[in-house]
Write a structure and sequence with these properties.
Blueprint: H1 2-22, E1 25-28, E2 31-34, E3 38-49, E4 52-62, E5 67-78, E6 81-91, E7 96-107, E8 110-120, E9 125-128, E10 132-136, E11 139-143, E12 145-149, E13 154-164, E14 169-178, E15 183-186, E16 190-193, E17 198-201, E18 204-207, E19 212-215, E20 219-223, E21 226-230, E22 232-236, E23 241-252, E24 257-267, E25 272-276, E26 280-285, E27 288-293, E28 296-303, E29 309-323, E30 326-336, E31 341-345, E32 349-352, E33 355-358, E34 361-367, E35 370-376, E36 380-385, E37 391-396, E38 398-404, E39 407-425, E40 428-445, E41 448-454, E42 459-463
């Protein structure tokens, strides 16, 4: 029995204590009228509920329901939080203060202005749902809906969210922002626009103090004519350097160049880009494109003294490329837009229709966005397939190949020229011509040599078919690399040697 009374006594004491904690205290009023149910308070009115103090000019206090309505010069003090407004509706059961009209909420980290604010005094959480603006040092944030957690300085914004800084503007639909760290977290389509560039993501964060961003979904940088995309994108605004990973795409739209790969590096200040891992480079030409694969590709934009610009593309290791009119392989390659040349280094081979060309280095000359010339200064060798076992061959120190309408139509070979050429009457072979001449011109039609002109004292022999010696069929240095040739734009990924 004593235990029962002790339990009952403790229960009633607890209820009394809870009731006291929930009870709104009237701390001050110059004038108060009414009864126990409804009281009207006027002049310097002050209420206190738990740790929160609320001030106003006048109020209606509903004692039985333990709530009040307040009007004029509303002010709430809740630890470090201060709120002012025109009117206030406060219910102690929910600890919700409904503030209306010219609401301003401040704490040491921010200032919030809105026309409608609900504030939970127990949890120190503020809600607005009819547009609001927050100022946090150099950042101004606005949205249609927002929630502020004063204890941990976190804010959540929804609908038409804008963060304005002196250096950039952020537009998004959903944003989490910490007023102390000044880090913004994005959970939907987001753009960050500045005078330098535009950043886009659908998931990520941006640190306003360090100007570092980390994006995780459908993210890109758009800077002048340059575009960088990656599933995962790290960007430092201070240095204008971005690192992209996963489905990387880097473009220079002014030069019609695209670099695709798994890893990409972008330096906006230096206008330099680099791509590696699973690379595809696409250079668009008129009515055609060049597709290239290598271990790594570097792109650099440069400027002349008159402020005109040009660019250099460097591809390294196991380079293979495909274009409808020309294909090639080499160890490394450089494309220089200022003189419109592509230079192939280290065991280069190119093919044009039925012709294979090799040399110590090969230069492809582009004019008016079309391939016009093939240039070799040393160890030039032109080969075309006559049959599966017989090959027309021409070699010399230097070679110039001329291209019109995407077809190789003439080749000049100079210095120590040599030829092995099969002569046919229709499909019937009538002999093989083997000759030496310092200067040779070959006219080509439909991929085959139609006419050979020896321009300086040739020394040659015509062999009838029955007198052909296999030893005479190949010039020194001959090799046929048809098995290496890229068959289409998808075959550039398979390295063969």
């Amino acid at each position: 029995m004593k235990s029962f009374f002790l339990i009952c006594f403790t229960f009633f004491i607890t209820l009394s204590s809870i009731a006291q904690r929930r009870q709104i205290e009237i701390k001050n009023a110059d004038k108060m009228v009414g009864d126990k149910q409804l009281r009207r308070l006027y002049g310097n009115v002050a209420f206190k509920h738990q740790k929160t103090t609320m001030y106003c000019d006048s109020a209606y206090f509903y004692a039985q329901d333990n709530k009040f309505e307040a009007y004029g010069h509303i002010k709430i003090l809740d630890n470090a939080v201060t709120i002012i407004a025109d009117t206030l509706y406060y219910n102690s059961q929910t600890s919700i203060a409904k503030l209306r009209g010219n609401v301003v909420m401040t704490d040491p980290e921010m200032k919030l202005t809105t026309q409608f604010l609900d504030y939970n005094t127990k949890e120190q959480i503020g809600y607005y749902y009819n547009s609001g603006t927050i100022i946090n040092r150099e950042n101004v944030l606005s949205s249609k809906r927002g929630t502020y957690y004063s204890r941990d300085n976190n804010m959540f914004f929804k609908q038409s969210v804008t963060l304005t800084n002196k250096d950039y503007i952020i537009h998004t639909d959903t944003l989490k922002y910490n007023t102390k760290s000044e880090i913004s977290y994005f959970f939907g389509p987001t753009t960050i626009t500045s005078s330098k560039n535009l950043l886009y993501t659908e998931n990520g964060w941006y640190d306003s103090k360090t100007n570092i961003a980390q994006f995780f979904e459908n993210s890109y940088i758009n800077s002048k004519s340059q575009f960088v995309y990656g599933n995962n994108l790290h960007y430092d605004r201070n240095t204008d350097i971005g690192i992209a990973k996963g489905n990387v795409c880097i473009k220079d739209t002014s030069q019609q160049v695209s670099l695709l790969g798994f890893y990409g590096y972008y330096n906006g200040a230096q206008e330099y880009m680099y791509v590696s891992q699973e690379i595809l480079m696409i250079k668009e030409f008129e009515n055609d494109s060049l597709f290239l694969h290598a271990d790594s590709v570097h792109y650099k934009k440069l400027y002349n003294s008159d402020s005109t610009n040009y660019f250099i593309i460097q591809a390294y290791n196991k380079v293979r490329f495909y274009k409808t009119d020309v294909q090639g392989v080499c160890d490394s390659l450089v494309y220089h837009s200022q003189d419109s040349t592509i230079t192939l280094f280290t065991k280069p081979i190119i093919w044009s229709e039925e012709n294979q060309i090799t040399g110590k280095e090969i230069i492809l000359k582009i004019e008016n966005d079309q391939l016009r010339k093939i240039l070799i200064d040393a160890e030039s060798f032109l080969t075309s397939e006559d049959t599966k076992t017989q090959y027309n061959q021409m070699k010399g120190r230097s070679l110039v190949g001329y291209i019109e309408n995407n077809e190789l139509y003439k080749v000049d070979i100079t210095h120590n020229g040599e030829t092995v050429y099969y002569l046919r009457d229709g499909i019937e072979m009538i002999g093989i011509n083997k000759a030496n001449c310092d200067s040779i011109t070959v006219y080509i039609s439909e991929g085959k040599a139609q006419k050979i002109i020896f321009r300086s004292k040739p020394n040659g022999t015509m062999y009838p078919p029955e007198q052909i010696n296999p030893k005479n069929l190949q010039l020194n240095g001959f090799s046929w690399y048809g098995y290496i040739r890229p068959k289409d734009k998808n075959d550039i990924y398979v390295w063969r040697e």
